[in-house]
Every structure is written in C-alpha cells, then in structure tokens.
C-alpha cells in the first residue's frame, strides 16, 4: 500500500494525455511534408492544398469548446477514444484521395474534427481536474507534447515520404493513433474520485465533481456568450488569434515548402523543424514553470515580442548563410508554443477553474481561426507572388501588436495568484 502511494494516479493520466497529444501533434505536422509531393503527383497548386489545411486548422480550433463540454457530458476517456478512432480512419483514408475536394473532406473535416477533440482544451481540463498544485508546470509539459510529436514524427515522415511515397507517411501516423487507443481505454479516467484519490496536491476530503447533465452544445454556446461580454476574453482571443497565425498556420504549414523554394532539401527542412521542436520542448516546459511564479501578462508580452522579431528576420535568414537559419530556429523554437501555459492561467483567473475548459476552448478556437487564415493567405501569397516574404513580415508585425494587447488584460481571481518563487 505504501509503495502504491508513491505515484499518484494523476501522473498516469498525465502520461496518457501526453501520448495522445503527442500523436495528434504528429498527425497535424503531416501537411508540411505532404504539400510538395501532392503538388508533384496531382498538379494541385499550393493555394489549393492550403485550403484543405485551413479547413483542418479551423475545425481543430472550433471543436475545442464543444469537446470541453463533451468531457463533462460523456467523459474524457470516451471523447479521447472517439477522437483517436476518427484520426486513424481519416488519415488512412487520405491515401485514396484523387481530387482536391477529397482532401478538403478527409483531411480538412474528418481529421480536423478528430484532432480538435484532443486540442489544448484537453490539456486544460486534465490539469484542472487532476492537479491542485504545479498546474502551470504540468500544463507546460502537456503543451510541449506538440513539440515532442513534431520532433519524433517529422524526420520519420520526411524519410518515409522521400523513400516510399507520401502514402507510407500517412499510414504511419494512422498506426500511431491506433497504438495509443487501448491506453486511453484502459488507463484514462474522468475524475480522481473514480480511482479513490483527490487531485494531486489537494485535500483528501475534496468533494467529487458532479457530472453535467446539460447539452454539450448549450454549455459551449453559453460559454461563448459569457466571453463576448468580457474585455479580457477579447484580449485573450485576439492575442491567441495572432499566436495561431504565426505558428500552426504559417511556420507549421509553410516553413518546409519555403525551405524547398530556397534549395534546402525537404528532409533537411523537416530536421530543422524537429530541432525547433526540441527547443520548444524546453521553452514551453519552462514557460509553465514561470507561469506558476510570475505575472502571465508580462510573460506573454516577452513571448510575442521575441517571436515577432524572429519572424521579421526569417526572409533574410532563408536567403542568407546557413548559420542565420539555424539562429532563427533557436530564437523561434524556444518561443513556439510557450504562450499556452500563461494564456490558460489567465483564462482560469478571468473565468474560474471550473469554466476553464470551455472558455479556453473558445480562446483556442480563435487561435485556429488565425492559423487557418494564415495558412490560406501564405499559400496564396506564394502562388501569386512567388515567395513567402510578405506573409513572414506581416506575421512579425502582428506579433509585436499582440505583445501590447496582452498587457491590457486585467482580471485576476485571488485564489489563482502566482505561487511564490
């Protein structure tokens, strides 16, 4: 009995959640590898392919608040299992597509919905249900799963695509989703009380949460209605819109094709993204630790400001000496998704711990709207102007704008004040 208490069940939940998010991140990184092969095989323009990616990114975000409501209605475990099944079916089905609308339907709609059910709202829900202390640090680790997924999947997918065709890469990611599926079924639980424990770091007599009997769609829409009337919601959503535009939509989708345009081999470019993933693993975990101790508004101001400066220098790094692109990778990589832990904390401070899943779901939806628009915009810019310079420079400018926006966030609940350093 004493040995069993050494490891709190919350850490197993965290591990399964990390693996699920890691797999989802690997699947979401696939378009950067597929754009050039699809251009060559089907003759589709980069703007056409980017449209399907944009639909995927948009639904990935819009599913967030509804997924958070389903976590309350049918449980986290069932929702995650459904998501992994959709991802496995959707990704494997892409190998059959022959028309652009096939890609929009399969990759955009099916895979987008499946990925959206395991978006950052899952991280926020798991952290707030299972952890009472060290929430920022745990959230940083879970958020870093995106970087780890990119690190593990991108080089492998690039090599599979190069040597065996892009369909082999698709089957590999579908297989990864199927491997995680049984872990979710057998280990994942909805609440600590289901295994006879309280949240990690909470009092043993903490009351068990009551299951919601409300319609998930009504819960999600009521959260949106509440957010619309809050200035903090608009500031958080607006800054996160810019975050999505400058990460998933632009760099995550178009950096590899941009490198290919400048004579950098696709496998080398994928390795560069993987290297950025290593750095982001440390940067995001550190960001979570910092958000437990320091004002999240100031952290976000630094993150967006540094990201903006790095993006302004990217066009010159691509056409400059090799060391300049490596410098960009270091500068940008440490900052990639470091914005998530402080944004989740500010959401909890503004709307309360029990509402963070749905409210952050909507804020994350704005992130993906920005990502979708940026993916389409950058693809269109490349198609009609011949390069990505305008897209990269504009993204850098709006990141500097976000650095100012986050300083205007004011709401704070006393019980969620940062821990003492």
Describe this structure as you would to a colleague.
76% of the residues lie in helices and 0% in strands. It contains 18 helices and no strands. The C terminus is likely disordered.
Continuous helix count: 18
Tally of separate domains = 1
Assigned CATH superfamily: MFS general substrate transporter like domains
Low-confidence stretches: 413-421
Task: Explain briefly what this protein structure is.
With 421 residues, the protein is mostly helical.
Keywords:
single chain; 421 residues; Growth Hormone, Chain: A; globular
Ordered list of secondary-structure elements with their pairings:
Blueprint: H1 9-28, H2 30-42, H3 46-73, H4 76-93, H5 100-116, H6 120-130, H7 135-143, H8 145-164, H9 166-187, H10 216-228, H11 231-246, H12 251-261, H13 266-291, H14 296-319, H15 322-333, H16 340-351, H17 356-385, H18 389-405
Helix pairs in contact: 1-6, 1-7, 1-8, 1-9, 2-3, 2-8, 2-9, 2-12, 3-4, 3-5, 3-6, 3-10, 3-17, 4-5, 4-9, 6-7, 6-17, 7-13, 7-16, 8-9, 8-13, 11-16, 11-17, 11-18, 12-13, 13-15, 13-16, 14-15, 14-16, 14-18
